[in-house]
Specification:
The protein has 2 domains: about 50 residues, no CATH class; about 260 residues, Cysteine proteinases (Cathepsin B, Chain A), CATH 3.90.70.10. It contains 8 helices and 12 strands. Strands 3, 4, 5, 7, 9, 10, 11 and 12 form an 8-stranded mixed sheet that branches. The chain has a two-stranded antiparallel ribbon with strand order 1-6. A two-stranded antiparallel sheet has the order 2-8.
Length: about 350
């Protein structure tokens, strides 16, 4: 009897060993794919994160939900590391007052329900996906710049890649916090005040808040190099997805969401739904470039351009559930601009 118990224990341990070896081999393949290099001490910490994330992805995908996850380049991070290194501080949107709620074309009374989808990429109105890197809270600058780039194209038929670094460096005196987070509406106030924004070429992205140097401030904006400007901006009525959808027919919209869930971090494809998402506690600025309906089952979604690079999600994009109780706060903050 004792021999049988010992044999069972040995078999169980062997299975665990082989399973762990299989995951470790998978992890090594993953590190080669994403060019990850660790010290000996860090290797096992990253491996443990990877193993936990693999278990999470496997369990999620086994449910065969609309949202599909993968072991992407974030797979060696814990959720807390992801939040701290790639997202802004949480903002309770209920504490921020709307101040510029004008509705062009009387949208509130003139809904156009005949348009079932729009994707501004199809009009060549969206610049390529960018990567904020470790400038953790910079999503607001990418969201703000993205809506100006697209709106400038829609009016002037000229697609210019504009400078997020200009916003990161130059709006701290107005209330934004550089790489620690900020609000797109403050960026718009700054651009209106300065009567312009620089190009990415003239004011390239550094991925961190530039420190003052040689007796000068950190902001290097020169109006001589301004490549685009806005005259005003419009805050879409809060928590109103009809208003958001109607605004998207005219142009992309700068929005904020809760991007803090592991499911968002490890998103691969499909319409994103996670009941853990908050609709009012938000931490990531992102660009909404359209909406649509899945042909398979008629699920409505928004098309969001993220700032995690083109290897995340669907070549840098995510479909987020539309008309699903303000999912992840998608209609809690929405701003379009007037060129």
């Amino acid at each position: 009897m004792k021999l049988l118990i010992l044999l069972i224990i040995l078999i169980i341990n062997l299975k665990l060993y082989l399973c762990n070896l299989e995951i470790e081999n998978l992890f090594i393949e993953w590190t080669n794919k994403y060019n990850k290099i660790y010290s000996n001490k860090e290797f096992y910490m990253r491996f443990n994160n990877f193993k936990k994330n693999k278990e999470y992805v496997d369990q999620w995908n086994e449910k065969q939900l609309e949202t599909i996850l993968e072991l992407n380049f974030f797979a060696d991070l814990s959720r807390n590391e992801y939040i701290n290194n790639y997202l802004a501080s949480f903002i309770d949107i209920s504490n921020i007052e709307q101040k510029n709620t004008k509705y062009e074309g009387n949208l509130k009374n003139n809904f156009n329900n005949s348009i079932k989808s729009i994707d501004w990429r199809n009009f060549d109105a969206v610049t390529p996906v960018k990567n904020q890197g470790l400038c953790s809270g910079a999503g607001y600058s990418f969201s703000a710049i993205g809506v100006i780039e697209s709106s400038h194209f829609i009016k002037n038929k000229e697609l210019i890649t504009l400078s997020e670094q200009n916003i990161i460096d130059c709006t701290t005196d107005m209330g934004n916090n550089g790489c620690m987070g900020g609000l797109a509406l403050i960026a718009f106030d700054y651009i209106i005040k300065q009567k312009g924004i620089d190009s990415e070429f003239n004011y390239p992205y550094e991925g961190y808040l530039i420190e003052p140097y040689e007796g000068r401030g950190r902001c290097r904006y020169n109006s001589f190099y301004s490549k685009a400007s806005i005259s005003s901006y419009i805050e879409i009525e809060r928590f109103n997805e009809n208003e958001l959808t109607q605004s998207l027919i005219k142009s992309p919209v700068s929005v904020m969401i809760d991007a803090s869930q592991l499911s968002f971090m490890l998103y691969k494809s499909g319409v994103y739904k996670d009941p853990s998402c908050s609709s009012t506690i938000l931490n990531h600025g992102i660009l909404n470039i359209g909406f649509g309906v899945t042909p398979e089952n008629g699920n409505e979604y928004y098309i969001l351009k993220n700032s995690f690079g083109s290897k995340w999600g669907m070549k840098g994009y995510i479909y987020l559930s539309r008309n699903f109780n303000n999912h992840c706060g998608i209609s809690s903050v929405g701003i379009s601009v007037v060129i």
